[in-house]
């Protein structure tokens, strides 16, 4: 049988690594009994080997209370066993973030998270400000810290903005991830014109300012 699909660029990239990009829109993770993974539900598109998926429970009382109150963190699953898992989401672009120590921390919009090493610590962090106006997008996010790798997706080619020089304002639906130390809050530009149908539609933003970065996608997702 012959097909262009059998060309090398369409085949599994069999590198002996924990994480391997198969393309810009799919990543493969290798799980072993000693090194499980945590993934968001729906991120797995295929797997090979003896792999098990189960609900990822809370790792502390505080985390349990946050999950119960916000509903966030309930979409995580623990991946165990011995095999290879392929992660993707709606053909979105994927990039990897390597955290390299106890002081290394990253906050990720839950809609952009794919999977991460179980060695990373995770927690649910609320966004400061008038969260009721954000329609739930970016109101609660996952903070990762420690030593390990995370696979994150973006709708389109992501862009990194430096927030140390000047305040940076981002649409909550376009914010993918950011330095955990930035602690953004909600900023609003609601004016009288907004109440009469003449608003710009860009009245609510996340405000970042300080040493760090924010990754922005060229799309507004709900």
Automatic annotation (TrEMBL):
Source taxonomy: Bacteria, Bacillati, Actinomycetota, Actinomycetes, Micrococcales
Domain of life: Bacteria
Protein name: AIM24 family protein
Pfam families, per database record: AIM24 (PF01987)
């Amino acid at each position: 049988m012959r097909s262009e699909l059998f060309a090398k660029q369409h085949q599994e990239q069999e590198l002996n690594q924990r994480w391997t990009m198969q393309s810009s829109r799919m990543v493969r993770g290798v799980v072993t009994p000693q090194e499980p993974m945590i993934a968001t539900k729906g991120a797995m598109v295929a797997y090979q080997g003896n792999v098990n998926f189960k609900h990822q429970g809370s790792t502390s009382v505080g985390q349990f209370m946050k999950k119960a109150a916000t509903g966030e963190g309930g979409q995580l699953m623990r991946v165990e066993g011995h095999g290879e898992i392929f992660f993707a989401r709606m053909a979105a672009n994927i990039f990897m973030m390597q955290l390299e120590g106890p002081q290394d921390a990253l906050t990720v919009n839950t809609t952009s998270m794919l999977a991460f090493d179980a060695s990373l610590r995770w927690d649910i962090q609320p966004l400061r400000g008038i969260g009721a106006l954000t329609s739930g997008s970016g109101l609660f996010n996952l903070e990762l810290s420690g030593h390990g790798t995370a696979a994150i997706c973006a709708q389109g080619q992501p862009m990194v903005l430096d927030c140390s020089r000047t305040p940076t304002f981002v649409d909550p639906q376009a914010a993918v991830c950011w330095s955990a130390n930035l602690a953004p809050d909600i900023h609003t530009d609601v004016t009288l014109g907004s109440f009469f149908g003449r608003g710009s539609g860009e009245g609510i933003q996340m405000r970042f300012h300080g040493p760090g970065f924010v990754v922005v996608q060229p799309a507004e997702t709900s």
